[in-house]
C-alpha cells in the first residue's frame, strides 16, 4: 500500500505591514481593511510552516536534510522578511496588498525551486487565530 | 466523511548513524544527531482517522479503542525507549521523524477497523514533524 510521506518544518519571522491599496479611495480602504489600513502599519509574529515530499533516502532516513532546507528557507524567506516592512522592503508587495494570502503565494513562489524535495504547501500563521495555506494551485490566485 | 484526531506524547532517545558511512561522513550528514550516546525528544503523535459517523452512536470510531491501540502499538513499544536499539521495526533504519512516522503508520493501519487511517503526524519538536498519508488521499 502506497504511503506518502511529507516533512514539515516551522520557521518564525516578525514583520510589519499595512493593508492599503491605491486602487481604492481612502474611505473604501478604511471600510475594507479597517485598522489594518492605519497609515504607519503594524506588525505580526508570523509562523511559517512548510511541507515537502519526496522519497526517503534509505541511507539517511530523510526526505531532505535540514542542513539543506533550513539555509534555503533562511536565505529565500527569513532574511527577506524578518524585521522588515513587507510593503516597503519587499519588491513583490510594492503594488500587491501584503495580506497573508498574498504572503503565502509569495513565499510559495520563493520556495518552490528547492532542489532537494518537492514543496507541497506553505501555511502562514499571522496570529494564533489566523492561518492561511497555499499549495501552488493557481485557481483563485491573485489577478 | 469526518476526520477524528487523537494525540499522544511519548519520550524516547535516538541517534543517527549509518554504518556504511565513514565517521566524517556521518558527522557531516547527521551533525549533532550523530553524537554516539544519543539524545532524546518529547514526541507528539497525532493520529487521524477518517470515516462516517455511525447513525446510532454518532461516532466514527470508539476513541477508547483507538486509545488502547495507541497504547499497545506505540506507547509500549517506544515510550522511554532508545529507538535504535529497542524498537525492532526500526532496526537497520535511521530513526528520523520520516522513518518513525512510517513505522507507526504500518503498525496502526491494519489495527484500525472502524474508519480508515487518514494521517499520522509525528512531531519531534514543535518545529519539525513528518506526515504520512495514504497515497492519493487528499491532505
Summarize the structure in words:
Chain A is α+β, with helices and mostly antiparallel strands and 143 residues long. Chain A has one domain: Tetrahydropterin Synthase, Chain A, CATH 3.30.479.10. In chain A, 28% of the residues lie in helices and 31% in strands. Chain A has four helices and five strands. A five-stranded mixed beta sheet of chain A has the order 3-1-2-4-5. In chain A, strand 4 (118-127) and strand 5 form a beta hairpin. The model of chain A has no long low-confidence stretch (mean pLDDT 94). Chain B has one domain (2-133): 2-Layer Sandwich (Tetrahydropterin Synthase, Chain A), CATH 3.30.479. Helices cover 29% and strands 32% of the residues of chain B. Chain B is built from four helices and five strands; from the N terminus they run E-H-E-H-E-H-H-E-E. In chain B, a hairpin with a 2-residue loop joins strand 4 and strand 5 (128-134). Chain B starts with a strand and ends in a 5-residue tail after the last strand. The chains are: A alpha+beta (143), B alpha+beta (139). Chain A binds chain B through residues 1-11, 51, 56, 58-63, 65-67, 120-121, and chain B through 16, 18, 20-21, 29-31, 93-99, 101-102, 105-106, 109, 121, 126-137, 139.
Topology:
The complex is a heterodimer of chains A (143) and B (139).
Chain A: E1 3-17, H1 26-33, E2 42-53, H2 66-81, E3 84-85, H3 86-89, H4 100-111, E4 118-127, E5 130-134
Parallel strand pairs in A: 1-3
Antiparallel strand pairs in A: 1-2, 2-4, 4-5
Chain B: E1 2-14, H1 23-30, E2 39-51, H2 63-78, E3 81-82, H3 83-86, H4 97-108, E4 116-125, E5 128-134
The rough form of chain B would be described as: elongated
Tell me, what is the CATH class of chain B? Alpha Beta
Report the order of strands and helices of chain A. EHEHEHHEE
Largest sheet of chain A: 5 strands, mixed
**Distance from first to last alpha carbon of chain B:** 13 Å
Helix segment count of chain B?
4
Uncertain segments of chain A: none
Q: From the alpha carbons, calculate the radius of gyration of chain B and give it in angstroms.
A: 17 Å
Strand order of the largest sheet of chain B: 3-1-2-4-5
CATH topology-level fold name of chain A = Tetrahydropterin Synthase, Chain A
CATH-defined superfamily of chain A: 6-pyruvoyl tetrahydropterin synthase/QueD
Amino acid at each position: 500500500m502506497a504511503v506518502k510521506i511529507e516533512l514539515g518544518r516551522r520557521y518564525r519571522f516578525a514583520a510589519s505591514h499595512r493593508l492599503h491599496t491605491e486602487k481604492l479611495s481612502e474611505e473604501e480602504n478604511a471600510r475594507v481593511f479597517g485598522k489594518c489600513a492605519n497609515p504607519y502599519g503594524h506588525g505580526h509574529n508570523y509562523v511559517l510552516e512548510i511541507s515537502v515530499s519526496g522519497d526517503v533516502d534509505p541511507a539517511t532516513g530523510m526526505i531532505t536534510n535540514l542542513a539543506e532546507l533550513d539555509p534555503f528557507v533562511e536565505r529565500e524567506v527569513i532574511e527577506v522578511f524578518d524585521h522588515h516592512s513587507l510593503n516597503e522592503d519587499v519588491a513583490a508587495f510594492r503594488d500587491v496588498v501584503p495580506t497573508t494570502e498574498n504572503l503565502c503565494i509569495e513565499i510559495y513562489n520563493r520556495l518552490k525551486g528547492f532542489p532537494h524535495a518537492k514543496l507541497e504547501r506553505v501555511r502562514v500563521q499571522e496570529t494564533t487565530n489566523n492561518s492561511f495555506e497555499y499549495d501552488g494551485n493557481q485557481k483563485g490566485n491573485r489577478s | 466523511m469526518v476526520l477524528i484526531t487523537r494525540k499522544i506524547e511519548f519520550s524516547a532517545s535516538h541517534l543517527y548513524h549509518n554504518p556504511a558511512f565513514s565517521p566524517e561522513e556521518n558527522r557531516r550528514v547527521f551533525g549533532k544527531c550523530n553524537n554516539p550516546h544519543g539524545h532524546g525528544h518529547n514526541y507528539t503523535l497525532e493520529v487521524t482517522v477518517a470515516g462516517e459517523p455511525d447513525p446510532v452512536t454518532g461516532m466514527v470510531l470508539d476513541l477508547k479503542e483507538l486509545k488502547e491501540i495507541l497504547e499497545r502499538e506505540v506507547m509500549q513499544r517506544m515510550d522511554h525507549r532508545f529507538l535504535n536499539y529497542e524498537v525492532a521495526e526500526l532496526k537497520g533504519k535511521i530513526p528520523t521523524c520520516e522513518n518513525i512516522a512510517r513505522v507507526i503508520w504500518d503498525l496502526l493501519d491494519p489495527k484500525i477497523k472502524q474508519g480508515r487511517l487518514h494521517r499520522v503526524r509525528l512531531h519531534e519538536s514543535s518545529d519539525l514533524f513528518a506526515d504520512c498519508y495514504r497515497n492519493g488521499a487528499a491532505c
